[in-house]
Design brief:
alpha+beta, binds zinc ion, three-stranded antiparallel beta sheet, globular
Length: about 70
């Protein structure tokens, strides 16, 4: 019998250990820059920087809806 239990390990998600690069609060947004860097932001700074920074990113992953 073959059991294929699908996992989503290919989908990195933010944890409580991920901290905003600006203020050190828990991060809920991961921004992957076109230059290759990755920045993490809390909700506050993500909103503040989204307009200017988002065009420079290849991915803007907002996980703020995961706040429980
Ligand atoms: Zn912050």
């Amino acid at each position: 019998m073959t059991s294929t239990t699908g996992t989503l390990e290919a989908q990195p998600t933010l944890t409580a250990l991920d901290r905003c690069d600006r203020c050190g609060a828990q991060a809920y947004v991961r921004a992957e820059l076109a230059s290759g860097g990755i920045l993490l932001f809390c909700n506050h700074h993500a909103r503040q920087l989204e307009t200017s920074l988002r065009p420079k990113t290849t991915q803007w992953v907002d996980e703020s809806d995961r706040i429980s």
